[in-house]
Design goal:
By secondary structure, the chain is of the alpha+beta class. The chain is built from 6 helices and 8 strands; from the N terminus they run H-E-H-E-E-H-E-E-H-E-E-H-E-H. Strand 2 and strand 3 form a beta hairpin.
Length: about 220
C-alpha cells in the first residue's frame, strides 16, 4: 500500500491527513573545512587580486578567499568533499596565473624507522634532507632507536614521496620505512620484561649473599 492510499483512506473516514517528511533520514554531512595557503604568481595590480578572489569565491566548495598582492599568497577555506586543492590550482592557472599549494590545515603524524643511521654525521645528513622537504612541518630524530617522528601536510607531500626523498638524497645510504605499531609495542614489552628479569636476578643474588653467611654463622654457633 502506498502512502497516498493511506492518506485517502483516512480522509474518506472524515479526517484530514498529510504525508510528513521522514525525520529519520539523515542528510549527508560534509567534511570539515580545510584552510589552504596558495602561492599565486603573475599578479601585478589590485585588479589582478580582485580577479583571482572573484574566481576563487565562485568555485563550488570554496567558503572564503583572501589574496595578498605584496606576498603573492592566497588563503582559501574550502570543503574538500566538494573541491580539491588541485582543482583550485587549476582554476587559478586557467585564469592566466601561476599557482601552487604551500600548506593546508590538514596534517598527519607517523613514525618511520631508518636504516643506515650509524654516526652523528648520518643524523646530520638526515636533518638536512628533511629540512628541504616541502610540506614537512616538524620532525624529531631518535638516533638510539633509528627512528624519526614526522608531522607532514598530506595535501602537499605524500608519505611515499618523503620515504623516496630520504633514500634518493642520501644516495641510498639511508632507507626509511613505516614502523609497525604492533612490533614496536612488542619490542617495548620485551625490553620491559628484560629489565624486570634483570632486577629479579639482582635481588636474588643479593638475598643469597646475605642468606648463606647467616646460615653458616647459625650452624657454627650451635653446640
Amino acid at each position: 500500500m502506498q502512502d497516498e492510499d493511506i492518506v485517502e483512506a483516512i480522509e474518506d473516514a472524515g479526517f484530514e491527513a498529510e504525508i510528513l517528511p521522514d525525520s529519520t533520514v539523515s542528510q549527508p554531512k560534509s567534511q570539515k573545512t580545510l584552510s589552504g595557503q596558495f602561492r599565486i604568481g603573475g599578479m601585478t595590480c589590485a585588479a589582478c587580486v580582485n580577479s583571482v578572489e572573484g574566481i576563487l569565491e565562485k568555485l563550488p566548495g570554496v567558503k572564503r578567499a583572501v589574496v595578498a598582492l605584496a606576498t603573492s599568497l592566497g588563503e582559501v577555506e574550502y570543503d574538500p568533499s566538494a573541491i580539491s586543492k588541485d582543482e583550485i590550482v587549476q582554476a587559478i592557472e586557467d585564469a592566466g596565473f601561476d599557482a601552487a599549494l604551500l600548506q593546508s590545515s590538514k596534517q598527519d603524524k607517523v613514525l618511520l624507522g631508518v636504516t643506515g643511521l650509524h654516526t652523528e654525521g648520518d643524523v646530520d645528513v638526515l636533518h638536512d634532507i628533511l629540512k628541504k622537504i616541502e610540506g614537512l612541518r616538524q620532525f624529531g630524530v631518535n638516533f638510539g632507536n633509528s627512528e624519526i617522528e614526522i608531522v607532514f601536510d598530506p595535501e602537499v607531500v605524500g608519505l611515499r614521496q618523503i620515504v623516496d626523498t630520504i633514500e634518493m638524497e642520501s644516495n641510498d645510504r639511508l632507507k626509511a620505512h613505516v614502523q609497525n605499531p604492533y612490533l614496536q609495542a612488542a619490542s617495548n614489552d620485551a625490553q620491559e620484561a628484560s629489565k624486570t628479569l634483570h632486577l629479579l636476578r639482582s635481588s636474588l643474588l643479593l638475598s643469597v649473599s646475605f642468606f648463606f653467611p647467616a646460615i653458616l654463622e647459625f650452624y657454627f654457633m650451635v653446640p
